[in-house]
User: What shape does this take?
Amino acid sequence: MDETNRREEIRRGVDKTMAVSNDQKKTFDAIWGLLNRLRGGVHANDIEMHIVGILFYRFVSEKITDYIDKGEDDPNFSYANLTDEEAEQARNGLTEELGYFILPSNLFQNIAKQKTDKDFNIILGNAFRRFDESARGAKSEKDFSGLLSDIDFSTPRLGPTVADRNKVIVDIFDVFEKLDIDYTNADNDIFGDIYEYLMHKFASNAGKSGGEFYTPQPVSTLLAKLGLHEQKKTIKNVYDPACGSGSLLLQVKKQLGKDGDGIKYYGQEINVTTQNICRMNMIVHGVNYDKFDIALGDTLTDPKHLDYAPFDVIVSNPPYSTIWAGSDNPTLINDERFAPAGVLAPKSKADLAFTMHILSMLSDTGKAAIVEFPGVLYRGGAEQKIRKYLVDNNYVEAIIQLPDNMFYGVSIATCIIILSKHKADEKVLFVDASNCYIHESNKNKLSDENINLIDNTVSDRKDIDHFAKLVDNDKIGEEAYNLSVSTWVEKEDTREKIDITELNNRIADIVKCEQELRNKIDAIVAEIDIDNDNNSNTKDAQNNGRQNEKA
Assistant: This one.
């Protein structure tokens, strides 16, 4: 197999991105099927927070129960069987250690016994409220407070009557109550897997809005690998300024494995519901409350983590071409995050504002991997001036062109920009990974082979015909700081190669044959004309003879 065909096979890859067993997949599909058959015609996406909230509540209930039961010498001891009065004595200690507290009567397994109560929605709502309030005044308050506050069990979205709403809530409860989950198995992150599965399904079903808070897992994996790159044992923190549901932060945690012990995860999200989902996601995936800080607010105008910077790894998929204050806010041009470029990103396109913010938060030895909309790579005006600043100061390590139709709600091909403050050369690596995908359902996705090929190409930093090109910063400057991959990586010409001399000879032969054919046709036509003339003369003679006879 030649090198071109080998690369093409690797680019296309095979689908090995399924990170779960067939049994797990069957469980996940069964969960989604049940949730989509909720009574009253309620669709799972319409009550997303109710679903993830109830699953989360089972998790924290089992976590606190398991934590307490393991600390007792009596093998028959069960926290779930204590009275609330008995348990109350341990409130402060448990809140300090776990970050929250749940009374025995409010545990998931005990609330489930009240499913037939006509006021079940009120009972569950009160339990959620008490959980939110349990961290008030504690060190964990900002991590747990209000976590379930925007879940309303009296909303008409659950049904027109209290009875209808209770039926839907009981349906959801039944789905998660019946799950055979071994929480005590430390190596089995089944809660986290189910949570990630639900995030994926909600995002894919939500269409355009789904892409606002969820990055597909293969892209998350690639970003995490690109951000980490040989520094697993040295990083202290990870950051995402537009964290959504937290999938990128958690993928870094997954890639780190045991090397991630002690690392802290920081993120900011502008949407309160999505911020709550992210905090729940971190907890369900085993990140203790003192190891994450997910803030609420507009990162560009109200950043919450300036005092915690710099960060060793930054991974992010900011919103594409979103509107921001820009030049309408006269203080921003003097903000130390944006001032170095001497210009602000356009008000209608905040993409490079996020890029400048990320660069300012990056440590001198760290890396940032950012999903970008392709227009930022070649547009003029303020964006060109920002690119000039990034290239001239040697912050751009690589640009990777991704395939199209990979993200929910966005069919256009996106790209990844890698930033670094400690490059060994003054060049930018351009990688054309537009053909690195497999097709699944109605989306393109990266396979494991695709991910490894891209990651290794970035590490090797060498030219590969029609795939990767290492370009001097000065040369990029000569091309108006155009960072579009198609400008620098020549596409492979897959058209059939034609031998012009042979083609001309073939044409000459065709012309010769055509002329010979014309000559033959002319000869045949001439013969036909002679025959027609002879026949005409014969007929005239015969007619004249008949006329003479009559005379």
User: Anything to note?
Assistant: The two ends are 96 Å apart (CA to CA). Residues 500-550 form the longest helix (51 residues). The mean pLDDT is 87.
